[in-house]
Here is the input.
Amino acid sequence: MSEPNPPQPEQKQPMPGWTDEMDPRPDHGEDSYVGHGRLKGKKTIITGGDSGIGRAVAIAFAREGADVLISYLEEHEDARETERLVKEAGREAVLVAGDLSDPAHCRAVVDRAVQAFGRVDVLVSNAAHQATLNRLEDISDEEWRTTFAVNVDPLFYLTKAAVAHMAPGGSIIATTSINAEHPNPTLLPYATTKGTIRDFVAGAGQLLAERGIRVNAVAPGPVWTPLIPSTMPSEAVRKFGANTPIGRAAQPKELAPPYVMLASDEASYIIGATIPVTGGRPFI
Here is the structure.
């Protein structure tokens, strides 16, 4: 597959965006990721697992030996394709559609994982909402509340529900962003939530360490996912990723390895950390 080298074709999709309508089509590691048994037997939850980073992580987890619950917003072929890829790797896949801004649904996601797998070993809180807004006055009360309700609140609700079913060695991984350190002013609500997620990870990591449960985060830079053409102006999509030293956005497959590492027992001493994957942009 071709890399997303700017300039990309100008394109626009309705939210939340779909994989097959992107040009170039994102690469989630379908033909390249090779597992080595690093997550053998682990029972995992991935929110936003139908596409983008979530799909790449689901593929990697399955090929490393994990069963995967895929949480996603609404029924679409993207989720079914991720399910197919997990099953193709010989692992169990469970699909759960619904709105994570509802605390009850967050608890239902964890309950469904426990029903299917018997326990939870790894939780990846990855689902996100963003919108491009050029003026402070353009940010409605509803947009502000929605961004926090989708990006921040589920991390708390899911974590609280999951830890009751986690043994020592469990891992919680949140997706933050380079926006936590370098906020894009036109993504102000999103950037603010990503800074909040980083702080949650640092605090919860300390709180849960004595129970043997690790909490960490991955901070992506620009990644070529359906979120981009469905939430950014066409001109921003055209040059997306050009502001990195590497000169392009990441393919989703390039984000999967740090999630695998943090989910594995190899990361036993990594707690409260945020790992930047930014194409060379400093995360300081």
